[in-house]
Automatic annotation (TrEMBL):
Protein name listed in UniProt: CobW family GTP-binding protein
Pfam family, one: cobW
Keywords carried by this UniProt record: Chaperone, Hydrolase, Nucleotide-binding
Superkingdom of origin organism: Bacteria
Lineage, top ranks: Bacteria, Bacillati, Actinomycetota, Actinomycetes, Micromonosporales
InterPro entries associated with the record: CobW-likC_sf, CobW-like_C, CobW/HypB/UreG_nucleotide-bd, P-loop_NTPase, Zinc-reg_GTPase_activator
Keyword Heme: no
This protein's record includes keyword Nucleotide-binding: yes
């Protein structure tokens, strides 16, 4: 999605989890992924605990919040300032990652990001990292599952390598069951050292991206080609040669294909006078619709998820691509504009 950088707001993704759950490991893993320009906000008293080479190579500007936990600051001024700085268009970031301190409250943090008036950003999801070994001793201690599960758009059950092999499935199932009780639809993946597929979290460069735009990315991509350290997400995509039906598009955004964690696209719709372009993004239940300066000559829709039912997702995307959109669909346009208004 080459012009997404210029047209869309920068997604802000929060990484939360109890002390020592593996947030920094997950952050480092994401930063190691070539092909994305990332900004990082940590509220760890200014200590950016990532490899210095990675920071200088891939992160354009790191903003650190001092003064403790972001969600405890009176006016969240620290977070807003950091997001303001990192979302400046000249940085052309693909995503901003906020690593919360181990005591941050995910529900509050998610509200702070969602309600932030800072810069050109949009909420990009909240990844809750769970320590599979310590979880029932530290976080999930009461009969009711913790409220923090409800704020997550993705749950990563980390440190599964430290569970005795004979107990692994049982413990992971128990965590899954507790999370599901609070948040039935949230995707849950397991990981070692936070190694999840970065495609779940942000857009990464495709092999066909121009070499001079992302030289470092290309280099690392080539180096990493045969080095698979995580399970890959599945994806389905479709090219949109013509305008789409806004009603069908919104139906898709509100009820994504089974197993789709992210859905994104650039589309053209027919208005009463002219065609308009929109950038759409779904993460979990977050829907974001932004106008594009120009309708894209050719659009696309992409669905991504670890447990994506790929053939079913392909059928849903193909249905949007092939449905006739000859006449302006007034009711659909109204629904699309409502999301656009909610997204600003
Ligand atoms: N064996 C194993 N160790 C892990 C895994 N993930 C993280 N660790 C280790 O656990 C420790 C804590 O991991 P971090 O990534 O620093 O955790 P954190 O959530 O950022 O910690 P705080 O910032 O202190 O809250 C580090 O020593 C990691 O190397 C994992 O999946 N397996």
């Amino acid at each position: 999605m080459a012009d997404g950088r210029n047209a869309g707001r920068v997604p802000v993704i929060a990484l939360t989890g109890h002390l020592g759950a593996g947030k920094t490991s997950l952050l480092n893993h994401l930063l190691r992924r070539p092909g994305a320009r990332l900004g990082v906000v940590v509220n760890d008293f200014g200590v950016l605990n990532v490899d210095a080479a990675l920071v200088s190579g891939q992160v354009d500007e790191a903003a650190a919040i001092s003064g403790g936990c972001v969600c405890c600051l009176d006016d969240a001024g620290g977070l807003d300032d950091a997001l303001q700085r990192l979302s400046r268009p000249r940085l052309r970031l693909d995503a901003i990652l906020v690593e919360a301190s181990g005591v941050a409250e995910p529900v509050t943090l998610s509200r702070l990001i969602g309600g932030s008036g800072a810069g050109w950003i949009r909420p990009g999801g909240l990844v809750e990292v769970i320590d599979a070994v310590e979880h029932f001793r530290t976080v999930d201690l009461w009969p009711e599952p913790p409220a923090r599960y409800a704020a997550a758009t993705l749950v990563v059950v980390n440190k599964v390598d430290l569970l005795p092999a004979a107990e692994r499935d049982e413990v992971v199932d128990r965590i899954r069951e507790r999370v599901r009780r609070r948040h039935p639809a949230v995707p849950i993946v397991t990981a070692r050292h936070g190694r999840i597929d970065p495609a779940l979290v942000f857009d990464t460069a495709a092999d066909e991206d121009p070499i001079d735009e992302l030289p470092l990315a290309r280099l690392m991509r080539e180096q990493n080609r045969d080095h698979h350290d995580h399970e890959h997400a599945r994806a389905a995509s479709v090219e949109l040669a013509g305008p789409v039906s806004p009603s069908l598009l919104i139906d898709l955004l509100e009820d994504p294909p089974t197993g789709a964690y992210r859905l994104k696209g650039r589309v053209r719709v027919r208005g009463s006078r002219s065609e308009q372009g929109f950038l759409v993004n779904v993460v979990g239940t977050l829907i974001h619709v932004a106008p594009l300066p120009q309708p894209p000559p050719v659009g696309e829709l992409v669905a991504i998820g670890m447990q994506l039912d790929q053939p079913a997702a392909q059928r849903r995307l193909d249905a949007v691509a092939s449905a006739p959109a000859a006449a302006p669909d007034t009711a659909g346009l109204r629904r699309l504009r409502r999301y656009r208004t909610l997204s600003t």
